[in-house]
Amino acid sequence: MTAPFSWTYPTHIAHRGGGRLAPENTLAALRVGRHHGYRMAEFDVKLSRDGVAVLLHDDDLDRTTNGHGPAAARDYAELARLDAGSWHSAEYAGEPVPTFEAVARHARATGLACNVEIKPCPGRDAETGEAVARLAQRLWSGAALPPLLSSFSETALAAARHAAPDLPRALLVDAVPADWAERLRQHGCVALNINHKNATPQVVQAVHDAGYRLCLWTINDPERASQLLGWGVDAIFTDELAAIRPAA
Ligand code: G3P
Ligand code: MG
Q: Which of 16, 27, 93, 117 sees the fewest Cβ atoms within 10 Å?
């Protein structure tokens, strides 16, 4: 029998690994986040054409790599040759698109807690949710703190639940839907992750009263971060790792 899940994630989460300080969704970003005192990182995971889970936010390669067009049209061998660092700065030239597996190994080796955002390429929601959850279960086997899986895609969340029911899940939304409690229950989630612009003290109270955690993305103003943490939210995502510092 599995022990009940206990929420012990840090309150401060480095968005896309290292926020604005490093190329998003890379191993370099995770290192920068750690350097700034962040003990938890969020990153986005999708599948290559041949089913390898990699870190990448957009459907297309153009913004964050020197590749072009849809990521879903490339095998991993092609993605592995891309430069995912030069778009950010010369310092990171040649930084690769990492596999989810490499990132998981790095996170476990360094004690970094993870929020794995399942970000499927169009039309691959169930396949991606299942693959990422299965991998996460294997890669964090025996870990004291499992990764928090989240997605805007409820199809991906449902597939993740089916593949790895014991891993904690969060439903990602922008605005708070009227039926949020029903959706969290339906997907067996432990948390609701919303756009901080839609947070109010009443939302925080209602989510907590229902027995769930509330995480907010993406806060880049230190005063707003203090306000939201003062309301008792469970975690905030930020790009501003230098300005918004986790408690020591
Ligand atoms: O998971 C929080 C946040 O990352 C969701 O939005 O577009 O930055 O992946 P996005
Ligand atoms: Mg994300």
A: 93
